Each structure stands twice: as structure tokens, then as C-alpha cells.
Amino acid sequence: MLNRVAVLSDIHGVLPALEAVLAEPDVAAADLIVLTGDIAAGPQPVEVLDRLADLGDRVCWVGGNADRELVEARAGRSLPIEVSNWAATQLRDDQVDRLAALPRTVTLPVAGLGPVLFCHATPRDDEEVVLVDSRMARWAEVFADLPAEVRTVVCGHTHMPFARLVDRRLVINPGSVGMPYGGTGAYWALLGPGVQLRRTDFDVEAACARVAAESSFPDAAGFADEYVRSRHSDADALAVFAPRDGR
Fold this sequence. Notes:
Blueprint: E1 5-8, H1 15-22, H2 25-28, E2 32-36, H3 45-53, E3 59-62, H4 65-74, H5 82-90, H6 93-100, E4 105-110, E5 114-119, H7 136-142, E6 152-154, E7 162-166, E8 169-173, E9 186-191, E10 195-200, H8 204-214, H9 220-228, H10 234-241
Parallel strand pairs: 1-2, 2-3, 5-6, 6-8
Antiparallel strand pairs: 1-9, 4-5, 7-8, 9-10
Helix pairs in contact: 4-5, 4-6, 8-9
């Protein structure tokens, strides 16, 4: 049984944001750090993967759609997202192999929450969309095949934090470490025995300057300006994502 679990999602290859979260005392003291996907697709993919790999078995890795797409791009598929195509060319073979082997879901026992299923988007699909205001029928469809004993589900993918009940199941989205929608900072969650949605503040100006200086991605400065500065509000993101949740 794990007493404390730190959940980091959607890092998207932004090293300064990741380092800020890893420096949090509650993250350093957690029994385990769980990554819920979209880890490397961004301006500092090699550095982010190396930093996490250095933590060894303190980290449990779950794959997301962007991680899968990096593997596919490395195999020759052209992606519509420029930074992902570039990131795929930067990764070492061992890093591609790691991403290719990531599980879609992991279930772990957490104190106070019981068996917790961690996934990227939904338990059945790594790019399916569910939102804080998704209809109950949509949640029932998405969770139809879940074992009854799983009463807590942690997902990412949409970059907006929330915690809500869904027909007696608790659903948690920790938000995004590297590409937050709705406000600057790095968002994550601490589980056990309850649930805390957390935000780590850091020097955004310095982080943007670091990304621009340290990444060889041609539009690293533009990426940082758009995403590290969180130019997109949660209202903007919900408007874009809403048609994809079946409503």
C-alpha cells in the first residue's frame, strides 16, 4: 500500500517546469511518482526523459498519445504537430524503446483510495476526451469495462485540473506540468489518504528564457511563450475539446 503518490501529467518536454515540481518537498517525500503520459513531446525531450530516468524505481511510467506518436514518428509517420516531429528526431534509441514499452494503464493501491487506475486520457483509449462537465452517460460509457473494485481513476490529456465524483467513482485530473491551460505554473496532484490538486509556482520568465536558450527546436521561444506562459484559458480549451467528448 502506497501512503503518498505524486502524479505528474503532460510534462511535454518542458524541463524547468518538471524541475520545479520535483523540487517540491511533498514530491521528494512521496512513496512513488506516477507519470500519466505525454512526457517528452516538447522542446526538451531528451533532457526530460533523462531527468526522470535518473529517479529510477521512484517513478512509475504510463504512456500517453504523444509518447506513442513520438515512437510512430521515429518509424516514419509524419505528425501534424511540428514540435513532435522534431522531438522524435532528437531521442536516443533507448529512449524510443522506453516510450514504446510504456503501459496504457497501471493500477496501484493507495492509502485511503484503494485500487487507483492511472491512465492518460481514459482507461480504454489514450486520446479520448472526457472533461469536468462531461455527461454522466459519457462517463458510464468510458468506464464500462472497469473492474468494480476500482473506485478512483486518474487521467490527464486535457491539461486542466479537476476532481469530481462520477457515480460513486472519484475521477482526478492533475492538470499539466508543462502545458497548462488556465494559468501559469506547473500543476500536479498528491494522492493519499485524500486528494490534493497542487500548483507549483516558478519563474516563468526565466523558464521561457531557458527553453529558448537550451533547446535546438527552431521555434522553442514561441513554444515557451504560448504554453509555459499559458496563453490558453480553461474556457478556450473547454470550447475546443467539448465536441470531442460526444456531446
